[in-house]
């Protein structure tokens, strides 16, 4: 019989979140670790898991379920993607058990799809656990069609139909924002959050097209004397998020005033909600940490 408690890990590119929780996802202990897979050497993930994570969580003998980039070529072991359309049951059946002595460790597979716009393939690792965790937290979410937005470095937009992940697309908005603010002509020495500048960016996002041209207005407004330089980041954030929100849902055959469930960091989700409302969508925000933990607990109950 499996333990009443397990070790749950959301192990991403830059960070690792860990919980000791019961089978229903009730948390006994939570910690963050600066052990993102991008900073680990080959083979190091297994070592750090055993030497650092398990002892810090007092979880040396507990079973563990892991999701995220830990299942990529950068992580512990490369776990094959499940293909869309993908149900929770299909992912449950494809959990990858690490071949090692001691308490069992499973890695949730990522998901792969062919984009409906003909652009080619798309992939996710970790977001599938957030999505199914969100869906399985309430019975009504397991029926019908839902459009889900998962903001982040590589934002995911997904269609969930009767608790089956039908299709999704990725937008590199977060990474593009970081690159522009750090390594382009738009970088500034100091920045402040300014809601008016963010809204001005939303207005400038238009229908999401001609983004490369619209981006230059973040510079021309400053050098032309129309906007203080410390407001560039807020303006740029509004412009990028606004363009993503305006153009990306259509890639999944969705248009305003459709309802969108935004799952993730609450502060970032609030910005996406503002952008979605601006572009005529309805939107509700849901905590990403609660969603991923619910998903990991659901996978654990099925092993």
Structure description:
The protein has 303 residues and is of the alpha/beta class. Helix content is 35%, strand content 25%. It contains ten helices and 15 strands. The strands form three sheets. Strands 3-2-1-4-8-7 form a six-stranded mixed β-sheet, with helices on both faces. A hairpin with a 2-residue loop joins strand 12 and strand 13. The termini are close together.
**What's the total helix number?**
10
Overall, the morphology is globular
Count of DSSP E strands?
Answer: 15
**Helicity, as a percent range:** 25-40%
Describe the structure concisely for a colleague.
The protein is α/β, with parallel strands linked by helices. Helices cover 35% and strands 25% of the residues. The chain is built from 10 helices and 15 strands.
Outline the secondary-structure elements.
Elements: E1 5-11, E2 16-22, E3 27-33, H1 44-56, E4 64-67, E5 82-83, E6 86-87, H2 88-93, E7 96-97, E8 105-107, E9 111-114, E10 121-124, H3 127-136, E11 145-150, E12 155-161, E13 164-171, H4 173-183, H5 195-205, H6 211-215, H7 217-223, H8 232-247, E14 259-264, H9 266-278, E15 282-287, H10 288-301
Parallel strand pairs: 1-4, 4-8, 5-9, 11-14, 14-15
Antiparallel strand pairs: 1-2, 2-3, 6-13, 7-8, 9-10, 11-12, 12-13
């Amino acid at each position: 019989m499996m333990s009443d408690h397990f070790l749950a890990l959301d192990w991403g590119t830059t960070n690792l979140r860990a919980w000791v929780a019961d089978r229903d996802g009730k948390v006994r202990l939570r910690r963050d670790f600066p052990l993102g897979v991008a900073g680990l050497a080959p083979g190091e993930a297994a070592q750090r898991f055993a030497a650092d994570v398990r002892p810090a969580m007092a979880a040396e003998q507990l079973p563990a379920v892991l999701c995220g980039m830990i299942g990529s070529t950068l992580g512990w072991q490369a776990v094959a993607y499940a293909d869309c359309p993908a149900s929770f049951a299909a992912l449950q059946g494809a959990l990858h058990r690490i071949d090692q002595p001691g308490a069992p460790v499973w890695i949730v597979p990522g998901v792969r799809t062919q984009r409906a716009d003909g652009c080619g393939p798309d992939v996710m690792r970790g977001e599938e656990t957030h999505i199914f965790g969100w869906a399985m937290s309430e019975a009504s979410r397991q029926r019908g069609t839902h459009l889900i937005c998962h903001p982040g470095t590589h934002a995911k937009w997904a269609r969930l139909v009767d608790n089956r992940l039908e299709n999704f697309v990725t937008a590199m908005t977060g990474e593009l924002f970081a690159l522009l603010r750090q390594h382009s002509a738009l970088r500034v020495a100091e920045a402040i959050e300014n809601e008016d500048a963010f809204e001005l960016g939303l207005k400038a996002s238009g229908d999401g097209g001609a983004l490369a041209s619209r981006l230059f207005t973040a510079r021309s407004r400053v050098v032309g004397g129309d906007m203080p330089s410390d407001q560039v980041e807020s303006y740029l954030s509004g412009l990028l998020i606004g363009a993503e929100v305006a153009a990306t849902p259509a890639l999944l055959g969705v248009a305003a005033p459709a309802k969108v469930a935004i799952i993730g960091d609450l502060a970032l989700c609030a910005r996406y909600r503002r952008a979605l409302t601006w572009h005529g969508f309805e939107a509700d925000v849901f905590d990403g940490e609660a969603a991923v933990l619910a998903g990991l607990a659901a996978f654990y109950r099925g092993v």
